[in-house]
Amino acid sequence: MSEPQPIYLSDYRPPAYRVTRTELTFDLDPDATRVKARLHLERHPEREAGAPLALDGEQLALKAIAIDGQPLEQDEYEVGEAGLVVHRVPEAFLLDTEVEIAPDGNTALSGLYRSSGMFCTQCEAEGFRRITFYPDRPDVMATFSTTVIGDAEREPVLLSNGNPVERGELPGGRHFVTWDDPHPKPSYLFALVAGDLRKVEDGFTTMSGREVTLQLWVEEENLDKTDHAMASLKRAMRWDEEAYGREYDLDRFMIVAVNDFNMGAMENKGLNIFNSAAVLTHPHTATDAAFQRVEGIVAHEYFHNWSGNRVTCRDWFQLSLKEGFTVFRDQCFSAETNSAPVKRIEDVAFFRTAQFAEDAGPTAHPVRPDHYIEIGNFYTLTIYEKGAEIVRMLSNLVGKEAFRRGSDLYFERFDGQAVTIEDFVDCMAEASGQDLDQFMLWYAQAGTPEIDAHGEYDYANAEYRLILRQRTPATPGQPDKQALHIPVRLGLVGTKSGRDLPLTLDGEMRGTDTVIHLREEEQEFLFTDVSEAPVPSLLRGFSAPVKLHFPYGREDLAFLQAHDSDGFNRWDAGQRLALLALDDLIAAHRNGVEKVMDPRVTEAFRVLLAAESDDKAVLAQMLTLPSEAYIAEQQPLVDVDAIHAARTFVKQSLALALRTDFLHVYREHQHDAPYAPEPEQIAARSLKNVALSYLMAIEDETGLELAREQFEADHNMTDVRHALTLLVHSSRGDIADPALKAFGETWAHDPLVMDQWFAIQVTRPQPDVLDRVTFLMEHPAFSLKNPNKVRALIGTFANQNPVNFHRADGAGYRLLADTVIELNRLNPEIAARLVTPLTRWARFDEARQELMKGELERIRAEELSPNVYEVVEKALA
Ligand code: 0A1
Ligand code: ZN
């Protein structure tokens, strides 16, 4: 096999031919589906005449081909591995093809496949070429008409994009429905679903008074799990009208839940297809976190109707144009419907753990990459979440009003077009009158910028001098970086008053909270009229996706945690304080000396617990220690055992010192009102459950009893899952084992709950867990063909159980590599994602590095899909 070759952004050219209309007919069959395509093609005005017609196509058996009704001779075209070339074509013409495909054999879940007996499609990014020969690129936009023919009994429901225009019976127990989608769209937004589905229906009146039918299509047994998604959809539709002036544009909006899906969900025009895990909820099967995730994803896919579908990407290098913007939109939506500070804390905690790690590893890439081998590998935290942070910075830079004017301009100017990131940023520059040239570097440079800051207070002159210096580390292919435009939101908190001090910068009064713009490598900011010595509160709200270093003393951090007016930074100060204490304990563990708890941390917790803050949701976050993964992210060399020991020690010390406070918090926040996924209830549950996890860290008898009661009360999945997790992670197998068994039996019929059952077990810190993983891989509810199962069992083990995945004997690595090798054949996209933890070998000690690289080499020796090849090559480069 020849090595897969990268493609480059700089090679972009418009397509030689464009399609204006696409007419498809599917005659469905699990092993031999026939797809007829009639494409209305014409030469692209910017391209030369006489070019051959090259269409993408993979794993298609061509049965017939004609141009303008004339069948082609064998020597007039060529079919290869990657597609079809017709040597000579007219300027404008009709191309008819017929191909045969095999949905049942499609384990990659890209193109047309079957999931739990139902036909469904996934075309982003390049799945449509597995359905028919086509210029499968986002800058080719056509209107679609789709006729779906199926078995009337096996597939009573036949869906595609747009509006249904005709239906009828056919001989042999077959029937058909024809759908028409009047909005020109790229092939990646095409969708088809056929199967025995039930629907829940509702309606929405748009701001201009149009009636839209909303349908949620699920398997019969899931009809009771659709309320939350439907309610979320309606909220999202209203929010997009109010926040962005965007209205829905078809008579119907459909969501279908499928069990086998590579990602969360897909924004196909008028027919969103969702991983069932991203849409189905019920108080007894889904946790608060799952309810919130569903709300966020439903909104995300809906918002794509404008940011992605009406205005789409010119090419896949622009992926963040739709994803970064849409994630930003869904984050704002969720912040408004839930607790805004907690949403930001959760998003940032995740970002700083996972995206920072990606940006520091061998697969680091810019938000707009300039080359790739397999676009499927670029649905990353960098494209999505860092892209969203960039849009957030833009919104803060230009201000809310200008941002809205800029987005209005963008949607109006580019409606129906496939555009670039420059087009988006230009609209923001035009609407605000600001120069965003330097800002564009955020899209081009990979790596997390670091800011080294220090400050001096001059008592005599009442001045505070803040010095900021930025650097972005080298990343693969980018040894040298330029200075970025970094907005730093800040305040100065007076050490005497505990209040934000008025800020005067260059003679200008700026209130008590302001944004300074770091554009040079090093810059000095002089604040005047500073009446008392301040502690600076920097990067408030995480105003830029950077690492900020400031030589805070522990007293400073305790002070900020108590007094900062910015909720996010109050939380962050607590995290920094805990990290300093953890650093000492990690060192103590490594040096074999006795661990001593920093009393300042205990004191800070005591204050938090006593203060009975009115924001319970934030309080729960403040009481949560940085995760092992985030602690690891801060260490020069990761020692998983020392990190685990240090963090456990802090939890236990806090639990011993503050046992009665935790008990009090638990009891105060235990309620049995009927479950609702509402902010107040969620806050109370999270606070109560945090308290319980401290009590369980010392396996306190009362704590154990409370956990057992909480499990048995079976009030809602949030409480049940949390209690079960704590029990299973404890040393008390006598209580945990029967509970685990009962849970597994009760929910054997529900795949989404069984995913949780797997995850709970494989996150156990005890050393027997690897055997458990191997054992569970044989469980009847497990299947390598189902991505949710792979993620729940193998993904959770490799990503959320550091002490066991990084076992010194390399058995964790071996298990992961074995799975990747098997999945490489079945589902390359999932295999390439799964390999990620092994690519981080440089962060570990030499012995582990060798073991991890050894497994990567073992994978490399296989015949690899382009997906896995690209990741493994980068990891070993
Ligand atoms: N555009 C979707 C994500 C997505 C991408 C690729 C897929 O193929 C397996 C599926 C979904 C989103 O951002 O939600
Ligand atoms: Zn998206």
**CATH topology (level 3) name of the largest domain:** Zincin-like fold
Strand order of the largest sheet: 6-5-9-3-2-12-15-14
The general outline is globular
Radius of gyration: 28 Å
Total number of helices:
28
Distance between the termini: 20 Å
Low-confidence stretches: none
| CATH homologous superfamily title of the largest domain | Peptidase M1, alanyl aminopeptidase, C-terminal domain
Q: Structurally, how many domains make up the residues?
A: 4
| Overall CATH architecture of the largest domain | Alpha Horseshoe
Q: Any ligands, ions or cofactors bound here, and which?
A: O-methyl-L-tyrosine, zinc ion
Instruction: Summarize the amount of helix as a percent range.
Output: 40-55%
Alpha-beta content class: alpha+beta
Largest sheet: 8 strands, mixed
Beta-strand portion reads 15-25%
Q: How many strands? A: 33
Q: What is the CATH domain class of the largest domain?
A: Mainly Alpha
Mean pLDDT across every amino acid position? 98
Question: Could you characterize what this model shows?
Answer:
It is a single chain. By secondary structure, the protein is an alpha+beta fold. It folds into 4 domains: 1-196, Sandwich (Immunoglobulin-like), CATH 2.60.40; 311-443, Orthogonal Bundle (Neutral Protease, domain 2); 450-544, Immunoglobulin-like (Sandwich), CATH 2.60.40; 567-876, Peptidase M1, alanyl aminopeptidase, C-terminal domain (Zincin-like fold). 41% of the residues lie in helices and 22% in strands. It contains 28 helices and 33 strands. The strands form 8 sheets. It has an 8-stranded mixed sheet with strand order 6-5-9-3-2-12-15-14, with no helix packed on it. Strands 29-28-31-26-25-33 form a 6-stranded mixed sheet, with no helix packed on it. Strand 14 and strand 15 (174-185) form a beta hairpin. Its EC number is 3.4.11.2. Residues 447-550 form the Peptidase M1 alanyl aminopeptidase Ig-like fold domain. Residues 555-877 form the Peptidase M1 alanyl aminopeptidase C-terminal domain. Its cofactor is Zn(2+). Residues 229-440 form the Peptidase M1 membrane alanine aminopeptidase domain.
